[in-house]
Amino acid sequence: MISIHHYMILATLLFSVGIVGVVSRKNLFIIYMSIELMLNSANLALVALGRHFEKIDGSVMAMMIIAIAAAEAAIFLVAVILLFRKKESIDVDLFNFLRRQDVSR
Predict the structure, then answer these.
(1) How far apart, in whole angstroms, are the C-alpha atoms of residue 53 and residue 5?
(2) Taking all residues of the chain, what is their mean pLDDT, rounded to a whole number?
(3) Which residue range forms the structural domain that includes residue 13?
(4) What whole-number distance in Å separates Cα of residue 54 and Cα of residue 67?
(5) In a domain, 94, yes or no
(6) Is the alpha carbon torsion for 23, 25, 31, 35 positive or negative?
(7) Are 76 and 32 in contact (CB under 8 A)?
(8) DSSP label at 91?
């Protein structure tokens, strides 16, 4: 029988893989997928805990995280399009051109 411990171990492993992907990669799409993996592992943990304690709160929070992830996807798409139009690459190291050089303008 699958218990809450199995779900929590899986969520921890997925979150760890996501952290490794964010820290070690420079491709913007890989970083985004790693962030989504971390969000989904948090959703898994919330739903598993909600099911274990027989409360709906975990599922409600998971739905809120999914809504936030949808907004994050829109912002990510804008950033990728902006980066690709300016530099014709999606390497994260090229994002330093987005910083303002002169704040007074």
Answers:
(1) 13
(2) 87
(3) 4-98
(4) 23
(5) yes
(6) negative
(7) yes
(8) B
**What's the whole-number mean pLDDT along residues 3-32?**
93
pLDDT tens digit string along 75-105?
888 878 877 887 777 777 766 665 665 555 5
Q: Give the total number of structural domains in the chain.
A: 1
Q: Is 105 part of any domain?
A: no
* Domain CATH code at residue 24: 1.10.287.3510
CB 64 within 8 A of CB 50: no
Rounded to whole angstroms, the Cα distance separating 86 from 79 reads 11
pLDDT value of position 98: 59
Cα 76 from Cα 79, distance rounded (Å): 5
Terminal Cα distance for the chain, rounded: 63
One-letter amino acid of 32:
Y
DSSP per residue over 6-20, as a string?
Answer: HHHHHHHHHHHHHHH
